[in-house]
Each structure stands twice: as C-alpha cells, then as structure tokens.
Inverse folding.
C-alpha cells in the first residue's frame, strides 16, 4: 500500500459521491465496464504490478474479471492509481494525468487496438464525431453527444456519467493530440454532479 493511501481516512460505509449515495460493500448498481478499469491501470503500467493489484483486489481483480463494476469500485481504483503514481499532485491533477495515459492503456486492449488503429489518420474533427459511441462502448455509462460550434471548436457533452470530469478531460486532450491537434484548450462547464460540457478548441497541425 502506498504511504498516501495508508494515511487516507477510512471511507464511511455509506457516503455521497457526485450527488449519489454509494456504499463500500458494492451494493450500488454496476455501472463501469471492465475495459474502463483495465485501460486506466494499463495506462500507468501497473497491470503487472503485484503489490498494486493486491491493494485494489477488493475492488478489481484481473484474474476474476466481471463484466461491470460499481462506481465505488472504479473510484477506489482511480484514487489508488493517483496515490501510487502522482502522490505530489492534487487529486484533480492526478485524475487528469490518469485520463491522459488511459488512452495508451486502452490501445493495449484488444478492443482498443481495433478502435484506435487509424486515430493518427482520421484527424481531430472525425475523431470527436466518433467519441460518443466509443466512450459508450468502453465505459458503459453516461449519455454523450458532440456539437460543432465553429472551426476547430466543439462542445462535447456528458450526462449521467459515473466517472470524473478531470479524467475525461485527460482522455479528450490525449485523443485530440494523437489525432493531430496542437495546443488543445478546454473549458469545462459543470452542469450537474454527473454532467459536464467540454468546450474544446485547438490549433491546426502545421
């Protein structure tokens, strides 16, 4: 267990997370697909780290995969990754970094290798058009949409999302960069505890 994790207070048996009542005993409805958790762990290269996997085993065990996991499971794994890999960053900064690396982790999965095989060829605009369907298939949660606002300016909207906006921001920036966008900028508008709008702009690759 990381030193930061050791010093974290025990979560109460029931607590409010993102406007929802969740419990530590896994009773919340399963929301997150296996692929989503696998991607964030592979992204930070902890998938073969036995000490880390032992720490997160109560929430995620790759030797006994389940089709879906609870919000609690996902949050616990995400926070422990932040503790292990980014102990000197704030939780928000750590989650964004995990999101940036999750793209490379997803590309190490069977589905990810197929889905992102041509990401460097399709360009940022066509990538964003595909993002809602791609995220729906990976995470299994939320409602996603994309709206073009102008030249190299889009609004990516999430509703009823079980993840965190910082992590989603990291994924979007990494994806656009891989598709050829430069100087990606994003304004996040919080609509509700589980809903956000990401106003994305970037410079054309020279």
């Amino acid at each position: 267990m990381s030193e930061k994790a050791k010093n974290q207070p025990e979560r109460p048996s029931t607590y409010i997370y993102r406007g929802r009542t969740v419990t530590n005993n896994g009773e919340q409805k399963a929301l997150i697909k296996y692929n989503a958790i696998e991607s964030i762990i592979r992204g930070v290269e902890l998938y073969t780290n036995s000490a880390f996997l032992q720490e997160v085993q109560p929430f995620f065990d790759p030797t006994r995969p389940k089709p879906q996991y609870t919000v609690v499971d996902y949050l616990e794994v995400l926070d422990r990754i932040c503790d292990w890999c980014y102990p000197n960053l704030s939780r928000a900064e750590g989650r964004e970094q995990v999101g940036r690396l999750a793209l490379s982790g997803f590309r190490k999965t069977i589905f990810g290798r197929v889905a992102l095989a041509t990401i460097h060829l399709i360009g940022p605009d066509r990538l964003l058009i595909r993002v809602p369907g791609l995220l729906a298939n990976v995470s299994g949660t939320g409602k996603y949409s994309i709206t073009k606002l102008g030249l190299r300016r889009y609004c990516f909207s999430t509703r009823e999302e079980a993840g965190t906006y910082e992590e989603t921001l990291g994924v979007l920036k990494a994806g656009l960069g891989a598709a050829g966008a430069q100087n990606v900028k994003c304004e996040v508008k919080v609509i509700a505890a589980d809903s956000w709008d990401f106003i994305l702009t970037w410079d054309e690759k020279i």
Observations:
- Helices lie at 3-7, 34-43, 50-56, 71-85, 91-106, 110-115, 119-139, 165-178.
- DSSP finds eight helices and eight strands in the chain.
- The mean pLDDT is 84.
- The first helix runs from residue 3 to 7.
